[in-house]
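hey m, so remember when u said the tokens were messed up on ur end? i reran from scratch. heres the input so u can diff it against urs
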Amino acid sequence: MELNNKQTDIWVAVQGATIGKSHIQDNCVCQDKTFVYETSNALAVALADGAGSAKLSHYGAETVTRKVCKLLCERFDEFYNSNTPMPVKNTILSHLLKALQDTAIENQCELSDLASTLLAVVISNKRFLIIHLGDGVIAYTKDDEIKVASSPKNGEFANTTYFVTSSCALEMMKLVKGLATSINGFILMSDGSEASLYSKQRNEVAPVLQRLIKRLGMTSPEYLQPVLEASLKDAIAKKTRDDCSLILVSKHLKAYDELDDTEVNDYFGIKAKRPSDAKKRKIRYQDILNALETAKSDKELCELMGLKNTRNFIKTWLAPLEELGYIVKMGNNVYKRTIHPRCSFFVEEQPINMEEECDE
């Protein structure tokens, strides 16, 4: 999912949720829900963790994530320009409770059966709004640092928190607004993911998330989506019995054909001794990526580049791009570009191993 604003900032997002071990044992559904929504000038993401004590909280979590994203996009300017937060919070909460009441009628249940937390971020024209109610964490990346924007809000007793259906929801809801001009990305996580990715004692988020934001910034949602899903299932969920969910949002700034020579060398990992050789590799890489906007076989690409030796072409030109994650082999020697045509982040020297990073 991506947003192309008039100001040329492009934001992309990936999302995922996986069921926890306790819910698998109890034969329950995943109560964490995520949603991404975009309009012509806004991108909104939301995450909700359904209350374990509420039997239909997964329906409530799905309702609030979808409704809040659409509301935040449609009324962004009104909410952002409000001089005081209370009217905005009241409008958002009233809208969500009305939607939950409709869901309760549809499912013949009580409103309390649909209880969930809520985390949301909306970005429009270099501005952002954050909504947070309950536990979970919202963070952002800026100037090569990852910082917490909103930390978990727990209830009076252990393992309790606040929900959209709580009587004190209006009071406990957090609303933050600001400029996104120097922000590179946002991270939203449920309390299940906190076990692997957040330190309450230090109020710090795991550095691996900044690396994932960068990877999303220089590739594409199509490439990173399966990486995120596999990380949730194989690494993050191992640290808890709870459901785990995560949303990553990243900004692309430059097109790969707009980078200067130094940036291009870093971007593609070019280490040629002579400038002429570096320039040759730069042009060839760009030609390949441009050609792979639509899938093509290795033979088709080889002919398109005016080369004859397909095996050598794969080893010399396609293999490095595939290793970087900029292209993927789809089977039957067919390749497709994963890298987004606009980006500014440089190549990671090593692949990201979420299981190792979560042990830090």
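this time it looks ok to me. The longest helix spans residues 85-107. if urs says something different then somethings off w ur setup not the seq
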